[in-house]
Amino acid sequence: MPLLQLNIKNNLENICGKIECQPLVWGSDVTSFLPAPDYIILADCIYYEESLTSLVKTILDLSDINTVILCCYERRFTGNKPLLEKQFFELLEHFVTEEVPLSSQDPVFSCDEIRIVKMKLKPSKVFPNVETF
Description:
By secondary structure, the chain is α+β, with helices and mostly antiparallel strands. Helices cover 23% and strands 19% of the residues.
């Protein structure tokens, strides 16, 4: 948490609105984190086999129809990593996902191995006319 807080402090001039970071155990009660945030940012979280289901449940519990989730991860091809990546995306059945093309990423800080995926809840019968992206 200290490094995240330092990163926020060092970038305050680039932030509009409110930003905060708090520890959260995946799969735990998220009531104290509601209302749903505008953005959820995930970095290198999809390769922990024991917690994939809890991670996706937490993302779902924290999201509403307006929440944008940005998931960044490095593609890995050793061991069970390709299978875990596949399982993660299969668990996202309630979300629309869209890969952010490399051409839309920062040219200095992007590379072929790093993926950024933008996600939003799928429109439901409750919100049939809401656009996803």
